[in-house]
User: Fold these one by one.
Assistant:
Number 1:
Amino acid sequence: MMTPHEVGRGCGFDPDFGDQKGTFTVWGKGRDQIDGYGNAVTPPVPLWIGTRLREVLHPTSG
């Protein structure tokens, strides 16, 4: 069984975000935390979408 922290790392959540180096805080009991990760959009997804949208909306000339 994976811990909630391991599930969060596997989903792409960065423990070194902002000024909270080495950890991230997720509220609730372990099961609730894991359910929350399952309902979340992992950080790489909006980055990927935003990068492609930028390319379409603001194309570079060349």
Number 2:
Amino acid sequence: MDIHNYSRLFKNMATLEFINYTPYRHTVINDGEVIWECDPNLKAIKSLPMIFWADGVPWHEVNHWAHERATSGNIELKTVQDQMRHLHKFAEWLELPESPDWRHFPMSRADRVLIKWRKYLIDLRDKFSILAPTSTTARMNACISFYRHCSAFGLIDQNTQKWTDTPVVIKYHDTAGFERTLSRITTDVSIKCKVTNRTTVEEGLLPITGEHMRQLLAFARLNCTQELFLMLKLGFFTGARVQTICDLRVSNLDRAVPDPDVADLWRIAVGPGSQPHVKTKFDVSGNLLIPEQLLNEIKDYAYSIRRMKRVAQAPSENKDLLFITTRGNPYERKEDGKRSSAINSEMVILRHKARSAGLKFMDRFHFHQTRATYGTQLMKTLLPMGNLQAALEFVRNAMFHKEVSTTMKYIKFIEHTKRKIEVANAYTQVFLGLSKKIGNEGA
């Protein structure tokens, strides 16, 4: 595969569509006529994902899999949408000239469709660094789940050997500290998620340094849109996820209250119970802690002529959003399952400009690193005060962490970084001493 032509390979190929699904039932009347009517006992689904081949024909088997999962009541629609995005990539690959049919499972293991697909995914991960390890594993798992469904429903030959199942036992500790075991079935076509040795904090990402943060904000002020600049500041100084930032509304700012303990610090309610509701991961409720100066800055933006022009273009449901595009749309992913590319596009442009200006740390910068940076700086400030438990609880609440184990990563990262600096300093001293000794002997 030519990496330079990667994006061109999949033009005019299989598509992923999101439909509004209304369940119907049929009734056969006396003369044999079939009457279709809405089934009141089943719930309609907005944005049910469906895959169509390049010629417009639906991929019936994979669409049946999506329908069964979405209507089961046990799986969230968002999960089904994410898995269908993985299957969409599989469909695109299947339409490449050299790819086999999705039901191709000959006796030769190397020629089986899933073996070839597995090798392709591993190449994207290891050779070209296009896919993250977690995405690679999730993409293969989605395909395996689909094929299991096809076997169960007789949509593919059940006697064909597609892989070899292997039982595994996973050991873990429960909340009381007792060791438990969990039995699972894995396959020889699964892709293990590569675990990196580096110590990270938020979802495998590293924070940037305080100096790099200042350089980025100074550069962004002059080289990106005002909206992205303010989003970056909110990320760095409140630790909010991009999902939460993009769902903030002007009404939320107007309902902000002063922090009772810290001067010049305000609280904005988000999550379940906030008015109006602001999305948070896992629906964790809490308060964003925002400096008064930043709150005033985004309030000024909220009532600026620039934003009012955007409000004029927005439908009624978007008018109260703090950040909307020039066309009146939200910056983040919409509920119809389609991704809004606005914030992604602006981040790509900012990274390109920053690299050209010599800001090398921006080469792999992700918006989520603003949150990782906030959490690290906050924990660094609190740890020297001596009360570890209080620091953990404060950072956990400020970061909306569901589990305290996530907050603990910040302490581990800070300790790991401290040890690295100590080792580096010791090595430097030894190196300088050795260099001086060699220099003296040479003289």
Number 3:
Amino acid sequence: MKTLLKIFLLAGILISISKNANAQKPITWQRTYGDGNIDYGYSIVQTPDEGYIAVGRKRINTSNFIYAMRINKFGDTIWSKTYNGAVAYDIQMLDYNNYVICGSSFIKIDINGNIIWNHSLNWPYPKKFLISKENGFYLITSIDSIFSAYPLIQKMDSKGNLLWSRIYKEGIADGWFTDIK
């Protein structure tokens, strides 16, 4: 009897989990952006007005550029801009009206996409960064060679200038950082 009760209890839990896993919120809106070239979006951040700024890569002819676009809460484009550099992998809100973009360049922009400062970065490009409590930034990437890759952390000041850089080789034959918190 106990075994039968356990089976029914387990079946009830599985059915409940299955129903909850299939429950989805309805899509509010869905859009496709870009002009048919090889364009990619890699990161998005919500703005205080419930809109978004997304970043990635835009291909124009045979060149790649950092691409950013701001959309409202309905998905309508407010602005879209390209910046010098090949790609952007991450964007974070710095304060109410300023954002930092990280990729082939490290760029601070205002809410309208205007550049406040811009620094080119070396390959391989950082894919993630952390805003530090001291008003600076930590970027993660790796140093690649023909045979291996080593994790790298870079510390930047509040204006995006490099303060220090550390490569981690000890005990690592091949690796890189994928996230920073």
Number 4:
Amino acid sequence: MNDSLDKIWTWLTAQKGQLIHISKVEDADEDKAELRLQDVVLTPHKDRDEYLSSQAFLLTGEGKVQSENGMAPLPYDFYEVPLTDRWSVETSGLSLQLKTERATYVIKAAKGG
């Protein structure tokens, strides 16, 4: 695992059991979700068409996503954060910011959550 992956992994695993808030901005569209983080998995993608990123973090746990009608349950018991070929990460205390070629993710841990 490279240093940046390790930085993400360390920050995320430190939040296990906590409520996290996720903001994803892609093409001026913002999606919001919250999840009680149970586990973190770094998974490779094998995609012949190169549609999927080569790897992704799967954040598992029960959660909700913001919809037009308010908060709704996540369709699956995980939230996927795909890593493109180029990305950068910054962490500070209770937040992590990940910028990929496709989107910017801001993940914040709820204090005492």
